[in-house]
Amino acid sequence: MIEVKDLVKTYGDLAAVDHVTFSVPQGTILGLLGPNGAGKTTTMRVLTTSLAMNSGKVTVDGYDVADQPQEVRKRIGYLPEVPPIYGDMDVISYLKFVADIKDVAPAKKANRIGEVLEMLDLENMSRRLIGHLSLGYRQRVGLAQAILHDPDVLILDEPTRGLDPKQILEIRKLIKSLSGQKTIILSTHILPEVSSTCDDVVIIDQGKVVAADSVENLSQRLAGGKTLELEVKGPAVEIEKAFEKLEGVATVKGVGRESKGINKFEVTTDGSIEAREGLFHCVVKNKWVLYQLNPVGMSLEDVFLKLTTKESVS
Amino acid sequence: MNANKIWAIARKDIGHYFSSPLGYVVLAVFFLVTGFFFALIVEQTRSASMVPVFQNTIIILLFITPMITMRLWSEEEKSGTAELLRTSPLTSWEIVLGKYLAVCVFFGAMLSATLVYLVIMVFAGNPDLGPVVANYVGYGLAAMSFFALGLLASTLSENQIVSAVITYGILLMLWVIGAAGGSVQGKLGDLLKYVSIFEHMDDFFKGVIDLSHFFYFASLIFLGLFFSVKVLESKRS
């Protein structure tokens, strides 16, 4: 549904988006993850035809954003970082205006607006001036504007920003319920949001894609349980040799000394409980002292931090 | 080009004029000043003529225009709503024409209040209506030209004040350039005089509707709107 190939956008010498490539199959939700300034918003602005790219090819439902921007605009709903709302209009007038400029059929306008107000729990606020609404409600009006014309594609820049936990859950539920019918790209800093809402994830840092996979795969690739961290008091070299001989142990790496002769090791195993027990018994048999025996996993947080601080993920 | 979309944008922008004190204050000031001039001139000249009123209030137009055009695009950029307009199935011409229509309608409301003076004159005196019509036409054309240029200035900055200042600059230039033309000889002097708005207003003030002046005003309007569209388009890159 959405294809991004080699997208480049530069501002002078700075490449805000540097040969980014990814695709989003129809009916799926993609999470765009990255630190501030990574290029997520710029990428989204190119996708929504708000910004022209320097080079590359971006298509939405087969329509090229450079050659057929109007066709693309008809098919997307966009919620920018700052919700594009008019503070001096009331919610209903605003949505009527959006309906007019987005080609919602006049006959369906009133019904559709009512539907969307209900979906986003805005019925009580419908006559209120948007400028008088709290941040959370304003965000919801922004979302209302994005889904009003029932587009096939939704591009949401931090859709849960400013919402309280209850509202965040509701919005995530809403987004999830739209998947299947719609193709959605959402950008976020909130990693649990990606794991709980998205099918796929693309991690962007400094304009480049550093990882792209399904959420499941990425988490599994770096799942915990197979790597253990140990703190043992004893002679480092001998400990290492002893561990390496154990059944179920793959690699042993000394990762430094704590104080008072306590050595830290990172041991990768086959993940079995026997391997763990083996390590324990080994320490006891040699009359060393065990201070710590922990599984080390990589959550999405860890992946994110690692990838965006320029360490490679094995 | 979709007329419904143009009207949707116009309606929204007309709403903006009346959702803040600005629209009302501008109207009040306009009514006050034109009313004052009308009363003063009728009292002084004892004649039922609107012409001096128009001649004097053209200057108000110079001052008011930036006030009412400065927010047309600047505010959209500032508040982030420009993103909504850019990513909706709208053409830049639809956006520009919609906003232009809004300010013209607002001005229409302003001008229609002066019809009160006209009615008073018709009842109290025996005014020559031909010149009155000519004056209204000239005044309207001048206003529409100013607005097109003000709209262009608004697209040039995210900051309303900067847009207003640019507008003042352009309008003052148009105003004084004729004086410069007076002191320069030959072809250049003629050119400068041609660009001056007073050259073209003069006939209308005298009660003459000369179609050749339409070209001048039409050019200003077209230039203002055309370049507004160009600036809007350039914001995508």
Keywords:
heterodimer, A: 314 residues, alpha/beta, six-stranded mixed sheet, four-stranded antiparallel sheet, 11 helices, 14 strands, 36% helix, elongated, B: 237 residues, mainly alpha, 12 helices, 85% helix, 0% strand
Give an overview of the whole structure:
The complex is a heterodimer of chains A (314) and B (237). Chain A has 11 helices and 14 strands. Chain A is α/β, with parallel strands linked by helices. The longest helix of chain A is centred in the middle third of the chain and has 14 residues, at 106-119. Chain B has helices spanning 3-18, 21-45, 51-69, 71-79, 81-86, 92-113, 115-124, 129-155, 160-183, 186-195, 197-205, 211-234. Chain B has 237 residues and is mostly helical. Chain B is globular and about 60 Å long. Classes of the chains: A alpha/beta (314), B mainly alpha (237). The interface between A and B is medium-sized, with 28 and 25 residues.
Question: What is the structure about, briefly put?
Answer:
With 314 residues, chain A is α/β, with parallel strands linked by helices. Chain A is built from eleven helices and 14 strands. The mean pLDDT of chain A is 88.
